Amino acid sequence: MKTRAWTSLVLAMVLACMSGCGKKEAAPEESETKPETKETGAMSANEEPFGQTPDGRQVALYTLTNPNGIKARITSFGAILVSLEVPDRDGNLADVTLGFDALDGYLGKHPYFGAIVGRYANRIGKAGFMLNDVEYKLAANNGENHLHGGAKGFDKKVWKLDDLRAEGDEASVKMSYISEDGEEGYPGNLACSITYTLTKDDELKISYEADTDKATVVNLTNHSYFNLGGQGTGDVLGHELMLNADKYTVVDEGLIPTGENRSVKDSPMDFTISASIGSRIAQVEGGYDHNYVLKSGGGSLALCARAYEPTSGRVMEVYTTEPGVQLYTGNFLDDSVTGKGGKVYKKHYGFCLETQHFPDSPNKPDFPSVVLEPGQKYATETVFKFATR
Predict the structure, then answer these.
(1) Average pLDDT, the chain
(2) What does the pLDDT average to over 139-158?
(3) CA gap 329, 132 in Å, rounded
(4) Hey, which end of the chain has fewer CB within 10 Å, N or C?
(5) β-sheet bridge partners, residue 62
(6) Where are the beta strands (DSSP E) in 53-154?
(7) Residues 148/186, Cβ–Cβ less than 8 Å
(8) Are strands 275-276 and 58-65 parallel, antiparallel or unpaired?
């Protein structure tokens, strides 16, 4: 009896081991194909593949979702905001940002759809600046000027995932990139990070941080093109816009600031009282592509802008710690770009509100400083808050 019982026990253990070993062999294969999802309540954060770069680097797509159905999709390539689905007054969701369905679109030439741009967003005149008695020459990729970080700025880099989480009332993704000393002509090794956070209160927060080992200049922003009626549905000229700014930086023919901050009063530049984007755009040569000087002055989070699209009822408020915002009305969009869902993006099909320090600040000592010294922390935040009416 003892021998028979012992034999049965050994047989049972062998069968259990075989069954268990089979499960263990399958587990790695499942983890390679199944997207990672983190959830808390109705908040969720998901990671999945988004293709690879021509040199074989893997690119990820992160999806943040809140209980009201708002969904933000961000890719590690360029830390780009790929899409942002927001409900209208009837609860119908639509993607309100321009861009592409697949990575291939972002790998090609495009007008910075949804990208994080840097090391210096916007323009630097004559592609150079002086810092601590040293002249730095940058790539001239916008005529004789430098634009959005140069030939291969932050929008064309693969960012490293630092954290992906859904915790409490927020879902977030944090990514980092180290820009080496001399990259695109800039001094210093710059370690920077971007955090996208979606809240249960229908806010998408973008937080920027950086530090350096050598004096440098930094100005980071997000370059999303918005259409609150839904991407690809038509132009944005009927959007009503308020900007909390009573001055703007006057620019020359190359869109480089002259150094003058001019009052918007009694001019087509005035959005202190809400007005449709298209109501006076014909009076602005080339359309709006100007930096506005915010009343808040920067430094603390304050209302920057409010946009309203009458047909859908969507409202977007923008808050920022930055001293300026670039209003750009998609003046250079043309029928050559086919975006998400096969939509052709035409002139004025999107508008940008790029929160920032002023263009050409490295060459304008009277503008708020963009110099970052070793031991200092660059930290800014911009919040896009959505509602309906």
Answers:
(1) 92
(2) 96
(3) 36
(4) N
(5) 47, 74
(6) 58-65, 71-75, 80-87, 93-95, 116-117, 123-124, 128-131, 134-137, 146-147
(7) no
(8) unpaired
Both structure tokens of 198: 């979606």
The sign of the torsion formed by the CA atoms of 111, 116, 122, 123 equals negative
Q: What residues contact residue 374 under an 8 Å CB cut-off, 6+ apart?
A: 188, 211, 212, 213, 214, 215
CB 194 within 8 A of CB 159: yes
148 is catalytic: no
Give the Å distances, CA to CA, from 109 to 47, 99, 218, 328: 26, 12, 24, 19
Which residue type, as a one-letter code, is found at position 376?
Answer: Q
Cα distance between residue 83 and residue 105, in whole Å: 13
Tell me how many helices (H) and strands (E) the chain has.
Answer: 2, 30
The predicted pLDDT at position 19 comes to: 40
Q: In whole angstroms, what is the distance from residue 129 CA to residue 215 CA?
A: 13
Transcribe 268-327 into DSSP letters.
TT--SS-EETTSSGGGSTTS-EEEEEETT-SSS-EEEEEEEETTTTEEEEEEESSSEEEE
Residue 337's identity, in one-letter code, is: V
In the chain, the percentage of residues whose pLDDT exceeds 90 is 89
Task: Give whole-number Cα distances, 14 to 27, 53, 219, in Å.
Answer: 20, 47, 64
Catalytic residue of the set 223, 239, 348, 357: 223
Place of tokens 């009416």: 389
Instruction: State the catalytic residue, choosing from 309, 322, 354, 381.
Output: 354
DSSP state of 139: -
With 60 as the cut, is the pLDDT of residue 123 above it?
Answer: yes
Tokens linked to 46: 């998901």
Contacts of 224 (CB under 8 A, 6+ apart): 81, 84, 97, 98, 113, 114, 352
SS3 of the chain: helix, strand, coil, percent, to 5: 15, 45, 40
Is 110 designated active site?
A: no
Question: Which residue type is seen at 114?
Answer: G
Q: Alpha helices of the chain — where are they, by DSSP H?
A: 2-33, 103-107
Q: Can you read off the two tokens belonging to residue 358? A: 């002023």
Nearest CA to 346 out of 330, 369, 323 is that of: 330
